[in-house]
Amino acid sequence: MEITAIKENKKRFLDLLLLADEQESMIDKYLDRGEMFALYDGDLKSICVVTQEREDIFELKNLATDEKYQGQGYGSRLVKYLFEYYKDKGKTMLVGTGESPLTLPFYEHCGFKQSHRVKNFFVDNYDHPIYENGIQLIDMVYLKKDL
User: Fold this and answer.
1) Distance (Å, whole) CA 5 – CA 63
2) HEC states along 10-78?
3) Per residue in 94-109, is it b (16+ CB within 10 Å) or e — as a string?
4) What is the rounded distance in angstroms from the CA atom of residue 47 to the CA atom of residue 17?
5) How does 122-140 read in b/e, with b if 16+ C-beta sit within 10 Å?
6) Rounded to whole angstroms, how far apart are CA atoms 99 and 83?
7) In what order do the strands lie in the sheet with 35-41?
8) Is beta strand 140-146 parallel, antiparallel or unpaired with respect to 92-98?
9) Beta strand 35-41 with 43-54: parallel, antiparallel or unpaired?
10) What is the Cα gyration radius of the chain?
11) Within 10 Å of residue 74's Cβ, how many Cβ atoms?
């Protein structure tokens, strides 16, 4: 298994990024200013983008694992790598997600704790309703972890 930083041509991973954030215009808002990491185990398994929001706060904006490899621990391995990579660069890692029974338990399992929410985020910022596991996402739920 190898995790590498992706510095150039980040859009080549768009198909995978769209699994975690299904509107390209939203991805465009953070892709260039974020750091991208790819996890390979033979072939590409997972990808993520992290932005610096303040001097000591980083935000995991996108974490996606190829559908055929989901549930095999690649996403959580990438998150653990991020905690180690950013521990000397900041104090807090945030992640925002929808109120979904798939993603909230995953991030909590990785060590994040619920912090706050942004009401109507998905309704106000996406050009179509967003559904995950049959549930419409309305509010953005933020979780945080001290690094």
Assistant:
1) 14
2) HHHHHHHHHHHCCCHHHHHCCCCCCEEEEEEECEEEEEEEEEEEECCEEEEEEEEECHHHCCCCHHHHH
3) bbbbbbbeebbebbee
4) 7
5) beeeeeeebebeeeebbeb
6) 23
7) 2-6, 35-41, 43-54, 57-65, 92-98, 140-146, 113-118
8) antiparallel
9) antiparallel
10) 14
11) 20
Tokens 């945030």 belong to residue: 94
pLDDT tens for each residue of 84-128 = 999 999 999 999 999 988 899 999 999 999 999 999 999 999 999
Token pair of 114, please? 């619920």
- Three-class DSSP category at 7: coil
Cα distance from N-terminal residue to C-terminal residue, the chain: 23
Q: Is 133 left (phi over 0), alpha (psi -120 to 50) or beta?
A: left
For residues 75 and 63, is the Cβ–Cβ distance under 8 A? yes
* Amino acid symbol at 122: F
pTM of whole model > 0.90?
yes
Give the model confidence (pLDDT) of 27-49 as tens digits: 999 999 999 999 999 999 999 99
